[in-house]
Structures are given as structure tokens and as C-alpha cells.
Amino acid sequence: MKKALPRSIYAVMGVLVLLFAGLVYAWTTFSKPLANLWSQDALTWTSTIVMAFFCLGGFFGGQMQKKGFNVKLNLVISAILMVAGFLISGLVGNLTGSIVIIYLGFGLLGGLGAGLAYNAVLSAVSGWFPDKQGLISGILLMGFGISAFVMGLLYASNVDQMDGKGGIPWYICFLAIGIGCFVFITIGALILKKPGLDFIAPTSKEGKKRKNTTAPFEDVTTSEMVKRTSFWMMFAWAILTSVAGLAVVFLGTPIATAAVPALNDNASLLAIIVGLISIFNGIGRIIFGGMFDKIGYKATLVIVCGMFIISIGIIILAMITGSRLVLIIAYIATGLSYGGVTPSQSAFVNKFYGSRNYGQNLPIMTMNLMIASFGTKLVQAVQGHLMAGGMTNSGAYIIVLAGVAVICVLAGIIALFIKKPNTAKTV
Q: pTM of the prediction?
């Protein structure tokens, strides 16, 4: 067996792969020029479809690993699916003018490819850091989170917004992005691998024997996991907090323009402000991942909910005042809040159910996104209904955002009642 690289190399490579796999979160920016071709309602369905197939991709990746397929094969398949998804969405979508092609390309193929890469990277790299599960989850998922900001900004700065100012046609941009996904995810396939059974994490520099706060409570199979009350309570927490995060992530652009209408005339600035959600999402993932290791699962989950409630309150304030500065603060706070959701799920699965079946257990937990993704449609439907009744665009968003805040309160209450198993090996 080839000698393993320093584990920091696997972490860096994992972040790079997830930077491209995370492009599924950039749909709110990718779709802006497409609003001239298809309705906003039709375009919003793409985000729901991509989240559903992202979950399925993670599930299939876990099953492939269970059957003996290695991380390398999962990532190669992911690279092929991602480039095919962008190619089909761009070239075929442009030629046919069919929104169904966008659903199939970006939604189905892109979602599956992203899910496969997500599962493969987390399964492989987390194994090299058994001593820092929360932190490594946060670092890896930072790449997934900031993807929409980095790539979205490049896209918005160069694409033809169909406003008469010129730029690169959107379908050519899609092709370039697809090729980038293929190249970097394939490089990841050549480097990433799981640690061997004889791998032992480096000891701390202090050399002191310390209490192991990151060791798993148990090591259980997927069938055993889904029988646990803790799983279903965490699953419910994840659905509720993901609804809050996705509602703002995928509706970030229309919410921003409803709060500050002048942003409609400045696509680059709009992309930067909306992209703040993604970049601070990435920062939040590191912060909350490290917090999970330091203060435990319960306090972390409750703090995430509290942050969400505060963030939504600031968004509502931006709607009321029409202030660009308040909107910026709101999106920074929202990004930090949503940054706590995914690393908490990842670290929770490893902490409560062990690393042996992590690759199969994590995709089951992330299935919550499939349900939560319909939250964007619900927000849009309620907002549309309120506007049909004569309410203003911003007023309608204020109502639905207040409802999202109530959901976060419920999630916080659920978190308080999640208990470690009686058979826990560690405290």
C-alpha cells in the first residue's frame, strides 16, 4: 500500500473538491439571467430538484462504499455527472429552450454528482481526523459553503445578464464551469483515500493525557441508527433549520431585491451581497464545527437556532428600513447561522453512531434536505398568495420570514431534548 500523505493534504484536497461540488448552492445566482427565458416559479423548482438528487447521490455513494467501491470511483463518477449536467443544461437547454432540460441537467445530474462527491469526501477525510470530528466537518463543508460565493461572483461578473450590457452567454459559462468541475474533482479522485485500519491520529503537542470529548458514544449500523429516538429528533432539528437556511439561500436574490429594489440595476453588487450568505456560511461551518468539539452537541444545536432567530429578525428589519447596510449585516448573520447546520449533522452522526458505518449513516441524515428543499416552494407559494391578496412584495416576505423564525424556536426546543444513549462509551 502506498505511503499516506500528511493528513492536512487530504483536508485541503477535500475542500477543493467540495468547492466545485458545492456549485449546486449557486443556483440563485446562476438563474438570474435565465429569468428572461423562464418564469421565476419554474426556475425555483430547479433548487428543489437539485437538493432531492443531492440527497440521493449521497445515499448511492454510501451504498457503493458498502459494496466495496472505493472513494476514487465515486469521485470519478461524480466528475462525469457534474460536467454532463452543466453541458446538458447549457448547450441543450439553450438549443431547445426547455426548462425540463435544466431540471435534468443541473437538477438531476448535477445533484447526483454533488451528492456522490459530498459523501466520498466526508467519508474519506473525516477518517483521518478522529480527534477533531466537528472541526474537520466544518473545514470541509466550508468549501461546500463558499462555493456559491466564489463561483457565483465570477459568473455574475462575466455572464451576459441579457440587459444589453454584453458578456459571455450563460450556456458558455455553464460549459466552462462543468469542465472545471470535471478537472478538479478528478484530481481529488487521484489523491483522496480512506485511512488504513492501522491509522492512529497524532497525539497533541502538549503530550498530556486528556479526556476524549470527540470519541463516539456507540458504533451502530444504519438499521440500528434509525431505531433510535435521538436520530429522529436530530432529523427533525435538521429539517427545521435547513428550511430556514435554504429559504434564504435559494431565495436570497429575490429577498434582497425586495428589500433594496435598487439592487436590480447592479448585478455584480447584488451577487456580492447575496454571496455573503455563502462565504459566511463557510466561516460559520468552521466556527460551529469547532464549537461542537468544545462545548458538545446540545449547546451547539441550541446556539444555531438562536442565531437563526436573530438573523431572520435582522432580515425583517432590512425589509422595513430598505437599508443596504442592514441587509448586508442580515446576510452575514444568516450565513453564520446556516453554517452551523451541516457540520453539526456530520459530527452528530459520527459522535452518536460511530465511524465504522459513517459513509452509510450520514446520507440517511442528510435526506432531511430532500424534505427541507420544499420549504423554498412553500415560502414562495405563501409569499405569492399574500401578494395576490394585495400585500406588497416586502410585506409578504416579512410574514413568511416571521413564520421561519417560529420554526427555529421549535428546532431549539427539540435540541434540548436530544439525549445521549444510556450505553454511551464516553461522556
A: 0.78
pLDDT in tens, 214-261: 567 888 999 999 999 999 999 999 999 998 888 887 778 888 998 998
What CATH number is given for 7-196+215-416 in this structure? 1.20.1250.20
31 three-class SS: coil
Domain ranges of the chain: 7-196+215-416
Q: How far apart are CA 287 and CA 339, in angstroms?
A: 8
d(CA 118, CA 140): 9
Q: What are the distances in angstroms from CA 356 to CA 142, 191, 414?
A: 24, 22, 27
